[in-house]
Structure formats: C-alpha cells, structure tokens
Amino acid sequence: MTIISVEGFIDTHVHTGPAPFQRIGDTIDVARWCKGSKMAAIIVKSHFESTITKVYHARKEIPGFDLFAGIALNRGVGGVNPAAVEQALKQNAKIVWMPTIDAENHVRIFGEAGAFGNIGSGSYKNRSSRELFKPYTVTSGKGLSADAKSVIDLIVDFDAILATGHLSEKEIFLVVDYAVGKGLKKIIVTHPEMQCPNLSIQSQIELANQNCLMEYCAVNCMPMFQSVTSDQMKDAIVAVGADRSIIATDSGQPFSPKTPDMFRMFAQVLHEKGIPLEDIATMAIKNPARLLGIKPKLDKVQLAEELFGVAQNHPHSE
Predict the structure, then answer these.
(1) Are 289 and 295 contacting, i.e. CB atoms less than 8 angstroms apart?
(2) Burial class (CB in 10 A: 0-12, 13-18, 19+), 308
(3) Which one of 21, 99, 227, 260 has the largest count of C-beta atoms within 10 Å of its C-beta?
C-alpha cells in the first residue's frame, strides 16, 4: 500500500485563531505547517468574522503559500447581510458561507446557537450572554428572503464561491435553485455528511446534478465529532462521484491533528478503503483549484518515500 503525501493539496475549510472557540493555531501557524508539508493552498474560515485580515497578515509572514479569505454569515457580520458580503468581496474574499453556528437549523440540531451540543467540547461553546440576535434563516415565507437573494447576486457578480453552511436541506435546495438560475457555477454543499445538514445520499446526488460540489470533511470521521464512519464517507463519495466532490479537513480544533496531518490521514484512509489515487487528486487538488480559479500545482497525488520512519516499500506492506 502506498503512503500518500499532501503535496499540492488545497484545503477549502480551515479554521484558525484567534476566535471565541479555542483553535490549535493562528493563521500564520497553520500556513507555516501547510507550506512545510508542500500543500498548495488553504481557504481560511471563521464562524465569527471575515478572514480578510487574517489572510492578509499571514501572506506577509508566509510568502510563497496561497491563502484565501471568506466570510460566514453569522452574528459577527450581522447575519445574512448583503452589505457585509459586498465589502468582503471587494477585498477579494473568495467564498461566502451561508449561516453556520448561528443558523436556525444549527440551533434545531444542537440546541443552541454557537455550540455543538454533545459532540462538541468545553472549548466549543460561544453562547450569547444576552438576547442579542435571533438565529438566522435564508427563507421568508415559502421562498428565499430578499437579503439571501441579494447575497447570492453579489456572489455571482464577483464570481465567488457560494457555500451552504449549516442550513437545512430545504434551505439548501432553495439557495441552490436560485443560484443556479442566476448562472452561478461555483457552489459547495458544506459537509453534507455532518449533523448539519445530514443530507441523504439521494439529496447529495440531486444537488451534484445541479453542478454543486459535495465537500466531505475529515473532522466528521474524527473521534470527537464522528458524524459518519470512514466507510460511510467512502460510500457517499462513490455514490456522488469524485468529479462532483471535494475533500477538506474542517480542521483547527484543539482535539484534531494539525491541518496537513489531518488531510494526509483522511486521504490515506479513503484510499485504504478503496478510493483510487486519481479520485483523491480530483477531490483534493483539481476541483478546489477550479473553484478558486488557480492552476493546480500537480495533476496527481504524490507518494511519500518515508513517513515517521516507515518505509513506503516495506516488504510486508502488501
């Protein structure tokens, strides 16, 4: 069995400090780890603010490594707020996440905004000390709200990426239908396997048929969250197709490995479960590069000659 390297990999879902949640490192730390492992790029995410400033300073400290910023539509930016989205996109944010930890659906699943219920930990609570906001939805009546439509229109205008966040299945389909109708071709369904949104395989296939990419995240196979097993993750990828999927880490938690280690572990496990290396390359390199409008640094998965003292071509490895 081969040993996978993360060289050339692009991670579309990385959390960094500072944040109300504890993080394993700040953006400079994480960028340094990823560059050291020869990854090509990461998208830096925050549930609490746009990541433009984090990315700006990390680029200065870690030259020669591609970092991209985005904005998640939670309480820190005023929710589903077209004005905040416009300002972020004008500063070259590449992705807009619909509401995540402050979404109505998140509250329905986990019991409160800003927390992860029983699958979280002591480091993963961001309760509001006052009744400062109501959880966010993108709907109004039976359809999308005017603000949600305006946000999507802006994403189209700036040729950015739309990610569905922690919306419900109904909300996701409304968002995708409107975005596709507007001609948007860069849509990520955020961790469809997680409790938010917990999409069936059939729903994932239907969304993929509308040119959405399913974003399968390593954290959801890890011990703390473990929304699905690695076999279930593999089955979803096989059903949807690697050409309509991306793999990412959703890393940054103090109970998770460093981003490149987590990405390598995830890719290795999927390969051990039967996902071909060509499909790993499609999901970790080619599809993310297309979304970001950058040229992939590699066209296939590189293999590590030796990791942690374990030789790749060990005579008993088969």
Answers:
(1) yes
(2) exposed
(3) 99
- Is 172 within a domain? yes
Angle separating helix axes 169-181 and 201-208, nearest 10 degrees: 10
- pTM equals 0.94
The verdict on residue 219 lying in a domain is yes
Is 4 inside any structural domain?
no
Digit-coded pLDDT (tens) for 161-174: 999 999 999 999 99
The CATH number that applies at residue 30 is 3.20.20.140
Condensed to tens digits (0 to 9), the pLDDT of residues 235-293 reads: 999 999 999 999 999 999 999 999 999 999 999 999 999 999 999 999 999 999 999 99
Number of structural domains in the chain? 1
What are residue 246's phi and psi, to 5 degrees? -135, 155
Range of the domain at 144: 10-311
Cα-flanking dihedrals φ and ψ of residue 297, to 5°? -80, -20
317 belongs to a structural domain: no
Task: Supply the DSSP symbol for 135.
Answer: P
d(CA 17, CA 74): 17
- Burial track 205-223 (b if 16+ CB lie within 10 A, e otherwise): bebbeeebbbbbbbbbbbe
